Amino acid sequence: MTEQHLPEPPGWALKLLHWYCKPRYLEAIEGDLYELFDLRCQSAGEKVARRGFAWDVVRFFRWKYIKGIENSNRLNQFAMWKNYFKISLRSLWRQKFYSAINIAGLSVGIACCLLIIIYIKHDLSYDRFWKDGDRIYRIAINDRGPYTPTRLGSFLKSDYPEVESYTRLNGLYDFSFAIGDNVFSEPGGSLADSTVFEVFDVKFIEGTPQGALSEPNTVVLTKSVADKYFPHETAVGKIIKSSGDAVKITAVVEDPPANSHMPFKYLVAMPHEYWATTGWWTGNNFFTYVKLAEGASEEAFEAKILDFMRKHMAKDLMETYHYDNFDDYLASDDSYRFTLVPIQEIHLNYPRLTLAESAGDMDNVYIFSAVAFFILLIACINFINLSTARSGSRSKEVGIRKVLGSVRGELIRQFMVESFLISIFSLGLAILLSLVALPYFNDLSGKQFQSTDLITVDNMLWLTLLLTAVGIIAGSYPALYLSSFKPVAALKGELKSGKSGSFLRKALVSFQFAISIFLVIATVIVYQQINHMTNQKLGFNVSNTMVIKAGSALKDSGPFFRSKLLENPNIGGVAASTTYPSQFVGDWGYSTVGDVKDNYSLYTMFADSYYLETMGVELAQGRFFSRELASDTASIVLNEAAVRELGWDDPIGQRLERTEGVFTVIGVVKDFNFSSLKRKIGSLAIRYDAEIHKTKWGSAYYLARVKGSYQETVNSIGELWGTIAPEEPFDYDFVDQAFAKLYESEAKFGKIFTVFSALAILIACLGLFAMAAYTLEKRFKEIAIRKVLGASVFSITTLVLSDFTKLILFGSIIAVPLAFYVMDQWLQEFAYRMELGIVVFLIPVLAVTLLAWLTVIYQSFKTATGNPVYALKQE
Question: Where would I find the MacB-like periplasmic core domain in this sequence (predicted)?
């Protein structure tokens, strides 16, 4: 006879139950578990029953059943905190409307703050990734142009041990590459010394820093460019053609990070050795960087540079500026000094020195910081206002709690838990919102932020600290105020919110509107200033003027190219010059001719005789250059600003000289804006060059006045260019678009400012909406009595609106003078700025007032049209 198998629960589970379970519960729990085990065996089988038994044992592992902690104070504390959270969640759910307003407003505010924080952190992080970034300096010449003399870096290194290494850069330029039969124009190229990798710790992917740029006709590509032209193969060792020269790729390096002031895509070796060893000390053509030795003092080294200038540059400077001794030169207005600019400060504080398309602005960092602060402040005010307002309606709850034995400390903890729960929910929702909004924010800002930039330990730490502070502030008032109630008075409903609480809420609402009105005024002024600049008359044909770049590639075919362009019926005129409006114009030193020589610095460009009629620049006096007069190479044309600076009443026939000759003034053109309207029109000198395509004075551009179809014109010129200069890509621009690019940073600033201002107003309106609902709820019976006594719907609605209108007016009294002062300071940066009339202040005040009315009018009307019987029955 075989022994029958009886199912048994797992032994380890039984031992675990006996180990932790209190004796007084053990028998009952064990019996129930066995009973469940038998039932499962019959219904589902032994395996399922054993698993169910083990799971039940684990589920009973609770504070209540664990041995040794039945009298623990910790258990009571735990139970109390659990109760606080449970009651808080119920309270938040019971007041769903106000909780949702609080959480929504605070989360939107935090999300805005997060996005602004990563924007500001990005601007502040420029060039801090270089290993020795705190020892690398760019050499600048006072507030003049960004270029420095050819030999400056090498001579500084040989004279001063403080200079550990130096390098020169020139660019960024567009280079043309020919790879096989394909010709490409690639932007982002810079000429560089072989020492560039001693200053900047560029990371090499292929090749080594040693010898990478030591030979002419060598190039180092970044990974993005290498992958673009040589996908799935190594680029090092490949030969490409650039402007007819064979150039060898010697290395591939990582792309510089986005927060670099020198976002090069490839580095080309300096083509000639003499560029490093010869050159005038008064000719400035390169960007010079130095890396100081460890421990070297920036101030001490900068102080030595004056002796350096005396030793090496004094002779050239005195000859150029016509001084007998160097001290007289130093004491004159012509003198300049070399200064050291930390590269980590270039992006925000020295925009003229950046190689990137656009630079930052320290003022914008301050402004966005203020906007982030204001948005968060508005959200916090909503939170605090609603918390304190709603607290008055909980007096009976407090009275009952006190009667049942709650002490003041427990009530304080209860209200603080509710406050912190809202903060925690808001933080979670804010992170989600900011992640969703990140792609749109990237489009708006022109940056490429990642989610990892958003969720960092630093950001979370700061936000947690901030929300802790907000939670304490918002929870403190109701916690301290309500916990002080006498139980009997609270139960009788004799306690109402005090006048001080009501005044505080009104003051905070007024302050919210002050911030909103300030932001709207600032937004209006920013956009009007941008429109003012873009609509300003520039003094020439800014529209319909096409710029054809790389004119030097035409070589001897320049005149033929021009004649073919003029055969095109869509083109009304063609000229050539070494620059075009909106682009860089170098300032050259000139002196007057005579016994007493006065020195001047004039922006100088070269142009052919067709420039004036093609560009539509008006002639004020004399004549422009003539192609019939070869002697015009010794002539010069000034603009009115230059004549004013020179102080000539009759400029025609006056002479100016430089080292390359004496130039006679033959004409004066009316002032026209050849650079950004942020600056006043500078003193301009135009010199004659009949063969710009062969010019030795800079780049060559052809300017075509288009009078027909743009697309047809571009296509036909492109085809013509391909037949004449097949090795050079066709590259063009339009002057109006080039000018618009000058204001991209302002336009971007305006867009970001507008979006965040709108969100700030939205948050303020959310708070106003909730406050209006609460106020009308409190005045429900008062309004009912007014209706019974004959008040009309209109009079009741206007009564409610008038209360909120007063708060807006108080806010505008604060906002308008402050906005006038701040925005007037901002406008001082622009040479051409709008007038601050009363309209730009009045319209925002009216707009915010109207928006506030729309926010509360629905609830006001609904309350005013309600049946008063329902309200009066509640007595």
Answer: 99-305, 514-673
Q: How, if at all, do strands 204-206 and 245-253 pair?
A: antiparallel
- How far is 752 from 756, CA to CA, in rounded Å? 6
DSSP secondary structure letters along 310-347? HHHTHHHHHHHHT-SSHHHHHHSTT---EEEEEGGGHH
Cβ atoms within 10 Å of 660's Cβ, excluding its own:
6
Within 10 angstroms of residue 210's Cβ, the number of other Cβ atoms is: 9
Burial of 315 (0-12, 13-18, 19+ CB in 10 A): exposed
Helix, strand or coil for residue 384?
Answer: helix
CA distances from 715 to 568, 718, 730, 774 (A): 11, 5, 10, 66
**CA–CA gap between residue 291 and residue 132 (Å, rounded):** 8
> Looking at residue 391, what is its pLDDT?
66
CA 624, chain centre distance (Å): 45
Amino acid of residue 296: A
Which is nearest to 568 in space by CA: 708, 471, 446?
A: 708
Buried b / exposed e over 679-706, threshold 16 CB at 10 Å, is eebbbbbbbbbbebbebeebbbbbbbbb
Parallel, antiparallel, or unpaired: how do β-strands 655-658 and 163-179 relate? Answer: unpaired
Distance CA 164, CA 293 (A): 5
Across-strand partners of 704? 546, 574
d(CA 684, CA 640): 8
Task: Compute φ and ψ for 440, nearest 5 degrees.
Answer: -70, -35
* C-alpha 291, offset from chain centre: 29
At which residue do the structure tokens 């206007």 appear? 798
Q: What is the mean pLDDT of each run of 10 residues along the chain (875 residues)?
A: 71 89 86 90 88 90 75 62 83 83 85 88 92 92 77 90 92 80 83 92 92 89 92 89 83 92 91 64 83 92 90 83 81 81 91 81 84 83 74 72 75 82 88 91 84 84 80 73 67 56 75 85 86 80 85 82 88 89 80 80 89 90 88 91 90 88 92 81 89 75 86 88 82 84 77 83 79 74 77 77 84 90 86 85 88 78 70 59
Length of the chain: 875
Q: How confident is the model at residue 1, as a pLDDT?
A: 45
User: b/e map of 727-760 (b: 16 or more CB within 10 Å)?
Assistant: ebbbbbbbbbebbeebbebbebbbbbbbbbbebb
Angle at 70 between CA 66 and CA 76, to 5 degrees: 110
8 Å CB contact between 195 and 213? no
- The contacts of residue 87 (CB under 8 Å, 6+ apart) are 414
Cα–Cα dist 46/6, whole Å = 10
Quick one: tokens of 646? Answer: 């020179």
* Contacts (Cβ under 8 Å, ≥6 apart) of 146: 140, 287, 352, 353
The tokens of 470 are what? 């907000």
**Which two tokens mark 294?**
């460890």
Which residues have a Cβ under 8 Å from the Cβ of 567 and sit 6 or more positions away? Answer: none
